[in-house]
Each structure stands twice: as C-alpha cells, then as structure tokens.
Amino acid sequence: MMAVVRVPVAPVYRDARMASERVDEVLHGWQVEILSRHMEFCHISTDYGYQGFVLAADLELTPLPSPWTTRCISHNFADVTATPHVRGDVITSLPFGAFVDLRGGAQEYAPVGLAGGKAGYIRENFLKTRLPPADNEDELRQNLLNAAKMYLNTQYRWGGKTHLGIDCSGLTFMAYRLNGITIWRDAHHKEGFPLRKIPPAVAKTGDLLYFPGHVAMIAEDGRIIHSSHGNGVAKIEKLAKYQPEPLYACTVF
User: Fold this and answer.
1) pTM score, two decimals?
2) DSSP letters for the chain
C-alpha cells in the first residue's frame, strides 16, 4: 500500500514509539510504501530503501500514479497561503525538497494542491520542476556542491534533512536528491546505488568522502562541506583539519 507524506516534515523512528531514535525524515509530498500497521504507527519503506516507523496521522493513502512529483520547493522554506497575496493567511510552511501539485500556470503566486486535500498558493519562484541530472560532468559537480551549500550554517540534527536541522548523510543525500540522483541515506557505501568506490586521492568536487561514522562532500581547494555534531552546523573547512583520515571515497562519474 502506498502513501504520501501530508505534513511538512515527518520523523522516521527506529521503533514504533515516540521515544525511539529518529533515524530519518520524509518530507511533504514524498511517497512511501506502508509495510504494516502498528497501533498509531506505520512501518514504511522509502523509495531509497530506508525503513522505519512514521505516525499514521502524518500519511495520506494515495493511488498510483500520484501527482506529488510535479514541483519541488526550491527555497529554505515556502509559505503556502490561503490567497495569492503576501498578506494571505499561512496554511503551512514546506521545506526545501518537499513536493506539491502545481495546479495553474506561471504567475507570482502559483496555485498548488497539498497532500490531504488542501490547496493554496506558493510564490512561483520558490518552485522548480524536477529535472534529470545535468549531462555535463563539470556542471553536475558544481550543481551538487551548490545544493550542499544551500544548507550552510544549518544546525546539526541527528536524522535531519531540512533547514531546521540536518546530519552528515542527510546533507549529502539531499544535495544529490535535488540533482535527480538517489543515493543511500547513511554514512557508508551501499551496493545497488549509483555511487561507486574510488581512492580518496582522486576524489573531485561533488564526490563523497567516507570516514568512520561520517560522510562529507568534496568542495574546492582542498576543502569539504559537511554537517557534524562537533561543529554544530553545516560548514566548509579544510580537509587537512578534519580527523580521522577518510576510509574511502565515492563518485557517480
């Protein structure tokens, strides 16, 4: 059974209880597969193979195909207003990477549908079409880095994937996701995804470096961009300052 996330951000728990570890987040408009029901929780699997437990109230059952892939939020957060005006009442606020159903042509405030049946308006320049990855390698490498930079100074949050808080693999996952590439959402390489292992010495901009329990993206000039609990925020710093040494690197090129 398929469902779509109806809240701005739905925590994914390791176990079917609120006090359990938060291991991931799924965003508004993302589709998940419901594997089973456990009281007020659903055991779900994401389209990238991550499993956990989400509150059933955060999900809306949906037939396939679903419209929730037509537009992606392209700003840190975007208010959905009841009327197409800056003074319109705010229905909800959606994070970068959430999906909505566009229901009208280009205008300053675009009409959109939300999961759960509500509708409203979002600034058109806060929406983008989901596009395939850039064909040019240099362009794609720069696009991956630019997407990661969107999260600079975001606080570190275990399991996070938004500007409210993001962890190391959440940052790399979202940077690739926003460029049309789905990678494993964890701080280690997993077979079956586009990334392949390479020696750290040959890694370039946009490639990933894997450390014990940590992952970072190669930036320019011998630097990395990453979100670490030690820094408390996502930041760029010199690779030479970060210890321990990387175990391996991964690339999609």
Assistant:
1) 0.94
2) -EEEE-SSEEEEESSSSTTS-EEEEEETT-EEEEEEEETTEEEEEETTS-EEEEEGGGEEE--SS-STTSEEE-SSEEEEESSSSTTSPEEEEEETT-EEEE-S-SSSEEEEE-TTS-EEEEEGGGEE---PPPSSHHHHHHHHHHHHHTTTTPBB-TT-EETTEE-HHHHHHHHHHTTT----SSSS--TTSS-EEE-GGG--TT-EEEETTEEEEE-STTEEEEE-TTTSBEEEEEGGGS-S--SEEEE--
pLDDT digits (tens, 9 = 90+) for 194-244: 999 999 999 999 999 999 999 999 999 999 999 999 999 999 999 988 888
Inter-CA distances, 115 with 55, 118, 119, 136, 249, Å:
15, 7, 9, 35, 38
pLDDT tens-digit series, residues 164-204: 999 999 999 999 999 999 999 999 999 999 999 999 999 99
Select from 126, 97, 94 the least CA-distant residue to 110.
126
